[in-house]
């Protein structure tokens, strides 16, 4: 991976001629993303993210932290013990420059030996598991990082709305999709192209079924304005 997402974040943080990221998926056309959005403060975050930050407690793990905006709020405003992790070394460097106390280049699937009271997967962070057939391994790993009484807070979207609707109200979904929420992402930045990677948007019912099958409980905390939601996962 060329870490173009992280390069854009670090360019913005260091004022190194930052430009928009160009994103495209297997089911959507090219779109421009202003990197400044990743540096937003609490007041400019979506309500789902604000709610998750309000619910965060104890020792926190911010997975896929990006520019570290969520971690900074929890660290500076709520005075919580936060560890920010991302596979992007450039993003982690930007987090450190912004003042995140504990920012580590780390794949959450390889973490061990430490437990947390709150684990955050915001901005559709759970999509990093890539494919639905990997969700059990993903959930078991996250479960192993939870303290007794701990919680996982994640948001995602049901992207069924992106598929054509027929006269009967059904949706036409390509047969080569194992699950309609699975997409392939392409990112380009300053003329460079990242290797395509798998991502997943998971609807709440599918998430709930997978969570329960893996010995966790699932609660729908809040629904957003456009097929998005915030969920809480926890052990009994």
Automatic annotation (TrEMBL):
It comes from the Bacteria. Keywords: Methyltransferase, Transferase. InterPro entries: SAM-dependent_MTases_sf. It holds the Pfam family Methyltransf_23. GO terms for biological process: methylation. One of its GO terms (molecular function) is methyltransferase activity. Gene3D superfamilies: Vaccinia Virus protein VP39. Coiled coil: none annotated. This is SAM-dependent methyltransferase.
